[in-house]
Amino acid sequence: IQIMSRGLPKQKPIEGVKQVIVVASGKGGVGKSTTAVNLALALAANDSSKAIGLLDVDVYGPSIPKMMNLKGNPELSQSNLMRPLLNYGIACMSMGFLVEENEPVVWRGLMVMSAIEKLLRQVDWGQLDYLVVDMPPGTGDVQLSVSQNIPITGAVIVSTPQDIALMDAHKGAEMFRKVHVPVLGLIQNMSVFQCPKCKHKTHIFGADGARKLAQTLGLEVLGDIPLHLNIREASDTGQPIVFSQPESDEAKAYLRIAVEV
Ligand code: ADP
């Protein structure tokens, strides 16, 4: 991987934010946003004294508004900072709050960068213990810019156990290494599907691809999330599984991962 940058710019913490966890993936559609949302809720559920925020920098395809059942424009504080929108106890900010719902973001790099700058620097988070950042998929400008501008506690990389997704997850992990962001581990998503009728288990995308990649990279697998209809339905209806069905096995998988992070 080549990183087109002249040295690392100086990182400046986000005011009031103690720890930043970024959730990344090599490919789109592997469950990165679903993981980011449920991880944020799981961090809050595991320790109710902690204040959690969720920042969606997936500029071209923001999913957080729908998954967290939020819409509208952020209000401005007295110092002209955007106030996050709140649901299920999580403070959220997303590109989706700044553009119309069905309006595509057709922007060149410079405009995207200025939006990222706004999302990183012009939000009044108050005091947060953890800010979970939903990155765009891949290893482009936005990922680099976020990694180089704010101190990041660690990155988690989401992948399905499929070769094509793992190859890109590998690149993602290498990118974080190059910019000195610690990779906390991999999350293997959609690893097993259990038929709700006969209980037979099928590894639709392969069984343990992320485990093998983790071994190759010397990383941990933080957990496995099954492919489950309830996870998809919960996200689509804006009632994420960790919030709406905290006692389910699927929610428990996220809750266990939050302990590892
Ligand atoms: P990404 O952020 O990687 O593009 P999303 O989180 O948007 O991926 O997930 C893509 C789709 O897959 C969504 O419809 C989501 O609800 C669904 N999905 C994600 N993880 C699971 C899972 N473990 N089981 C069932 N559906 C899932």
TrEMBL record:
Keywords of the record: 4Fe-4S, ATP-binding, Iron, Iron-sulfur, Metal-binding, Mitochondrion, Nucleotide-binding, Signal, Transit peptide
GO molecular function, one term: ATP-dependent FeS chaperone activity
A biological-process GO annotation: iron-sulfur cluster assembly
Subcellular location: Mitochondrion
Organism the protein comes from: Saimiri boliviensis boliviensis
Classification of source organism: Eukaryota, Metazoa, Chordata, Craniata, Vertebrata
Protein name: Iron-sulfur cluster transfer protein NUBPL
Superkingdom per UniProt: Eukaryota
Any one cellular-component term (Gene Ontology): mitochondrial matrix
Cofactor list: [4Fe-4S] cluster
Family: Belongs to the Mrp/NBP35 ATP-binding proteins family.
Role description: Iron-sulfur cluster transfer protein involved in the assembly of the mitochondrial membrane respiratory chain NADH dehydrogenase (Complex I). May deliver one or more Fe-S clusters to complex I subunits.
Portion of the parent chain present: 50 to 310 of 319
